[in-house]
Structures are given as C-alpha cells and as structure tokens.
Amino acid sequence: MSYVFEPVKTVGLAINGTDDQFPVRRVYCVGRNYAAHAREMGFDPDREPPFFFCKPNDPESIVPVSAGVAIDLPYPDQTNNYHYEIELVVAIGKGGKNISVEDAVQHIFGYAVGLDMTRRDLQMKMREMGRPWEIGKAFDYSAPIGMIHPISETGEINKGEIHLTVNGETKQKSGIDFLIWNVAETISKLSELFELQAGDLIFTGTPEGVGAVVKGDVMQADIAGLTGITVNVK
Predict the structure, then answer these.
(1) Where are the beta strands (DSSP E) in the chain?
(2) Using CA atoms, how far apart are residues 141 and 61, in angstroms rounded to an integer?
(3) Maximal CA-CA distance, the chain
(4) Tens place of pLDDT for every residue, the chain, 234 residues?
(5) What is the distance between the alpha carbons of residues 56 and 33, in angstroms, rounded to a whole number?
(6) Is the separation of the CB atoms in 55 and 182 below 8 Å?
(7) Phi and psi (nearest 5°) for 219?
C-alpha cells in the first residue's frame, strides 16, 4: 500500500539525558487553570470545573526548542494581539481512561516548558460569537515546547516557580502550586473525556500576566527544575 502523498511526520521532542525523542500523539490544553488568570480574563474560577481544548500535533504547529538555542517564531497572520502564555507541559508515558487522582502520577513520562501562543483578538471574537477557539489557539507555530525532563529525574512536580520575561522584563511569575486543578487532578479529569495514550501532551494552564508581543520581542520562559526556552518573535 502507498499513500497518495507523503504523510505528516511525527514530531519528536528532545528528552534530557538521552538521544531518544518523545513522539507527540495529541496536544491537550487546560483553559483558565490559575485563579488570577481566570479573573483577568473576566471569569470566576471558583464556579468552573476544568475544560479542555486541543492544538494540532503536526510539525507546522509544534515547535521543538533545543536547550540553549533561541528559536525564531514568525508573527502570525490575521492578528493584532498576539499573546504569550507560559505553561507547564506534562508528557504522558502510559495510557489509560478514568484514571484516579491517586494513580495519575504513574502515567507521567516527564515535564517540559511550553508556550501556548494565542491570537487573542480572534479568540475573543469567537468567544463572543459562541464559536470554537481554533483560529485563536490552533494556528501554525502556536506551541513552542522545550526539552522533556523525565519524572525519574525531576520527581513529581507540584510546586516551583513559573516565570516569563519579555525583553528581560518580568511579565508572568507565579507558582505551580497555584494551579486550580493540579497535574494529577487534570490527568484524572481529562481521562474521563478521552482515553489518554503514550505520546500525549497536556498544557496545564497559564498564570496571570498574559499580554501581547510584537516583532523583535524576545521571550524567555522558565520553570524551576526544567530547561527554559528562548523565543524571538520575527
């Protein structure tokens, strides 16, 4: 059997301490999972269970960022309000459905630093119209992701500083322990809706301080214990 055209290649993310790569299957994202960010977006975080959306898993959407290398990220079309959102990314190493909170850690392969880049004006327009967010969240080059650190190296991550600067100025600074739904709870809730598989990634939410970048800006995203990423907006 042959394909009528070359199939899309699987995106691989570097894994700290090995030459092996983590093959990406699906990319899930949690919306408004820090209370202060939910408030700055105009919502009450105490009234809402976690909700999820997806990003594409193709090479045009996921942007692997190597350790110590600043990557160039093209400013996307059709937006005048291009936002950064730093997030802890969880890499799933073992699949399952209806996973309990207590068992969730057994399904984690590792962690990475990610950016959920957002065309905010398009997202807000779709929100106001009651339509899906894809044009605001699932566009090309919307998911820069750094090196994955295996959980065997880091241990379970439930706390630690999460920090993003633009041109050296702090824009987002919080702690992983401020997640409304922690990593284990997020995995459990997500597995009720989808059967998770090895290779899945979960963007766990962004803290307050989101904002716009323009061409020429340099973003530095760091989470305690993980390899940070540097992104130049071009």
Answers:
(1) 12-14, 21-23, 27-31, 51-55, 62-64, 70-73, 82-84, 86-92, 108-115, 118-119, 143-145, 149-150, 161-166, 169-175, 201-203, 211-212, 218-223, 229-233
(2) 4
(3) 54
(4) 899 999 999 999 999 999 999 999 999 999 888 877 767 767 766 757 788 999 999 999 999 999 999 999 999 999 999 999 999 999 999 999 999 999 999 999 999 999 999 999 999 999 899 999 899 999 999 999 999 999 999 999 999 999 999 999 999 999 999 999 999 999 999 999 999 999 999 999 999 999 999 999 999 999 999 999 999 999
(5) 21
(6) no
(7) -105, 135
pTM of structure: 0.95
Backbone angles phi, psi at 134, to 5 degrees: -50, -40
* Beta strands in 85-142, from DSSP E residues, in sequence order: 86-92, 108-115, 118-119
Enter the tokens of residue 174.
């919080």
Q: Give the tokens for residue 74.
A: 């093209």
